[in-house]
């Protein structure tokens, strides 16, 4: 059976080496991945190479990488975890959501800005 449009030739579980858990601490799906300067060894898998090439111009979250690679997020977490452990990627935790804004502070700021005119 040949794959149809949009179907992968290699199943996602083979990309992870058949593992059911990452080798290191699992990354959050919103963790930001950044490529390091280290060169990849010759035996690096094609999917890991694609992930590193994707991050050459800048940083992306794990979810964004998964979308570009057309892989499940869980498989991308496996790939990224291995690359972080090997020193080929840096992972930054997601930025926490902002807390409640003090309305009185914003009102005082607005009054101060208006007084500058």
Explained architecture:
The structure is a single chain. With 117 residues, this protein is mainly alpha-helical. It has one domain (12-115): Orthogonal Bundle (Arc Repressor Mutant, subunit A). 40% of the residues lie in helices and 9% in strands. The chain has five helices and three strands; from the N terminus they run αβαβααβα. A three-stranded antiparallel β-sheet has the order 2-1-3. α3 packs across α4 (73-85). The longest helix has 13 residues, at 73-85. It is elongated, with a radius of gyration of 20 Å. The mean pLDDT is 84.
CATH architecture: Orthogonal Bundle
Class of secondary structure makeup: mainly alpha
Tell me roughly what share of residues is in helical segments: 40-55%
Our estimate of the beta-strand percent is 5-15%
Q: How far apart are the termini?
A: 72 Å
N-to-C order of helices and strands: HEHEHHEH
**Which residues sit in consecutive blocks of at least 5 with pLDDT less than 50?**
none
Q: Could you report the average pLDDT, rounded to the nearest whole number?
A: 84
Count of helices? 5
Q: Strand order across the biggest sheet?
A: 2-1-3
InterPro entries: DUF742
Protein name: DUF742 domain-containing protein
Pfam family, one: DUF742
Element layout with pairings:
Elements: H1 12-15, E1 32-35, H2 46-54, E2 60-61, H3 62-69, H4 73-85, E3 89-92, H5 103-115
Antiparallel strand pairs: 1-2, 1-3
Helix pairs in contact: 3-4
Structural features:
117 residues; mainly alpha; Arc Repressor Mutant, subunit A; three-stranded antiparallel sheet; 5 helices; 40% helix; 9% strand; elongated; DUF742; DUF742 domain-containing protein
């Amino acid at each position: 059976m040949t794959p149809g449009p949009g179907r992968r030739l290699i199943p996602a579980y083979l990309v992870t080496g058949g593992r059911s858990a990452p080798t290191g601490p699992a990354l959050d799906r919103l963790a930001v991945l950044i490529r390091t300067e280290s060169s990849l060894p010759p035996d690096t898998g094609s999917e890991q190479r694609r992930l590193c090439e994707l991050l050459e111009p800048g940083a992306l979250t794990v979810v964004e990488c998964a979308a570009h690679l057309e892989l499940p997020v869980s498989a991308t977490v496996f790939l990224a975890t291995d690359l972080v452990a090997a020193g080929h990627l840096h992972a930054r935790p997601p930025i926490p959501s902002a807390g409640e804004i003090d309305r009185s502070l914003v009102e005082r700021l607005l009054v101060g800005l208006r007084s500058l005119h």
